[in-house]
Structure of 3-hydroxybutyryl-CoA dehydrogenase:
Amino acid sequence: MKKISVIGAGTMGRGIAYACAAAGYEVTIQDISEQSLETARSYISKQAAKAGLSIENANLEFTTDLKSAAADADLIIEAVLELMDLKISVFKELDRYAKPSAILATNTSTMSPTEIAAQTGRPKQCIALHFFNPVPKMKLIEIICGLETSDETVESCFHFGEKLGKECVRINEYPGFAVSRMNCLIGNEAMTMLMEGVGSAEDIDKAMKLGLNHPMGPLELADLVGLDTRLRNMEYLHRTLGEKFRPCPILVKYVKAGWLGKKSGRGFYTYS
């Protein structure tokens, strides 16, 4: 692999694009929003400066044109919103525009790569690569195989992850995979405890960090991920895995209020 394209310049997309550029890949990042691309450019420039890298030498390209972004890529990583219809729509377009040998990967944290791959003519070359936020710091990539994903595709993705300096784990497809399934359950229980008055957000998070050695508390993490994103994940897991994943009412209320976490300035915490 030499050329990587990232589709979606949001929090995950720009983080993945930076990690790929820092590892020496030629990277194209595509988004329908010029503003999102400018935000991504600024983010990548700041991350590169911290690491002593020059963005000019990172072989980075920014574009709103999906066709040109896909055309020459060896690996295309979709990082759009956690909406199945949207992901399927993007994959159908990528399947038309990408060269026959290209691997198509989704960065979904919960959804079925088999269902997404089935909408393409190359299910053997479709896979899920679940990166974690913030991408430059988080060491793990979950590699999730669809029903028809080939061993060659899996092997290529392991090599890709290793070049990025990440640890990779192979997970069999099931809703939520490994990390998101457990993380959503812990976060939902923390929200229920907050709603019940068991403790403040600060004390619940502090208890988890000091008592279980978690680097972040579950409510802090939900704010970082985005409460709207967490709610979509919970709704999907509730539909596919049952009642224990029913979203906590306080999560639903906060999203309705526009309290989406760090990105909106308010969630379980208030941000300046």
Summary: The chain has eleven helices and eight strands.
